[in-house]
Structures are given as structure tokens and as C-alpha cells.
Design goal:
The chain is an alpha+beta fold. It has five helices and four strands, in the order αββααβααβ. InterPro entries: Pif1-like_2B_dom (IPR049163).
């Protein structure tokens, strides 16, 4: 993570914030009870309205997104860290919906190449509903929604 010094920030304030983030990441912030920590979040960075929290977060991290789409480093210099893949999907879908243009939907293959002797078990164990519902690290989502001009990160697994 990289923090940059804005117009109104002082260096010591930025160092304190970076140290606070590192302490949270290392599990050193807050009082730990039964493996859980209670962390005080400063009110100036706290999202207060839970009904529009996702919209507020996206607007904070990506201000004026539509007018900055053509700027080369606009998306590269910003990121929203999410605790689960479900949160990532929600954020991606919300941001894609905000972009202009027609959506294109791509679905993954959801059939099983079963061996003849085990075909009954494999067809029950790996039904299309189960395969389409898998959401884990290392596998692409079943349904990918993209638009022309949307940033896409392509990864290549060389393992």
C-alpha cells in the first residue's frame, strides 16, 4: 500500500496513519479478546450512512470516475481492499453498472466430463448449479460482466 501526501496533510499525520494501518494489519491494534479485536476508527474516515456506504466508498476512492476514465493511471493509483470475494463482486458490479455503454455478459463452461463408471455420482456432485455457485480464489467467476472501456486485469497462472 502506498500513501501519498495531499495538499492539506502534514508528514507526521501521514506517518501516524500509516503506523495505525500497519498495526491493524499486524493484529496489534485494539484490545484483543478471544481472538477478536475492537479497533477505534477515527470519525473523519468512518462511513456513517450504512444505506449508501458502498456508493460513498466508491465515490471517495474514485472521485469523478466517469470524467477520469481516459486518464492512464486513474485506476492504477487507487484500490478498494475487500475482506471477501463476495464484497469484490459487489463492488465490481456496482462500478461496472456506473460505466457508460452496453454490458457484455460472459459465462464459464458449466458441464462435467464424467468417466463412464462414475457418471451417476459425478453428475450429482457437480451439477451446473453447484459449479456456477463456486466463488473462490484462483477461479474466475461463472458470470463475468464487462463494458467497453472498463479496466480489466488479466492474470496468467504459470503454475
Amino acid at each position: 500500500m502506498r500513501l501519498s501526501l495531499g495538499a492539506n496533510n502534514n508528514i507526521q499525520e501521514l506517518r501516524n496513519f500509516a503506523e495505525w494501518l500497519l498495526n491493524i494489519g499486524d493484529g496489534l491494534a485494539g484490545a484483543t479478546t478471544n481472538g477478536e479485536s475492537i479497533i477505534h476508527i477515527p470519525s473523519d474516515i468512518l462511513v456513517k450512512n450504512s444505506e449508501t456506504a458502498l456508493d460513498d466508498l466508491i465515490d471517495f476512492v474514485y472521485p469523478d470516475m466517469l470524467s477520469n476514465l481516459s486518464i492512464e493511471n486513474y485506476f492504477k493509483d487507487r484500490a478498494i481492499l475487500a475482506p471477501t470475494l463476495d464484497c469484490v463482486i459487489d463492488i465490481n458490479n456496482k462500478m461496472t453498472a456506473e460505466l457508460p455503454g452496453q454490458e457484455r455478459v460472459y459465462l464459464c463452461s458449466d458441464s462435467v466430463c464424467a468417466e463412464e463408471e462414475k457418471i451417476e455420482f459425478e453428475l450429482d456432485a457437480f451439477s451446473p448449479e453447484i459449479l456456477n455457485g463456486i466463488n473462490c480464489l484462483g477461479l474466475p467467476p461463472h458470470k463475468l460482466v464487462v463494458k467497453v472501456g472498463a479496466p480489466v486485469i488479466l492474470l496468467w497462472n504459470i503454475d
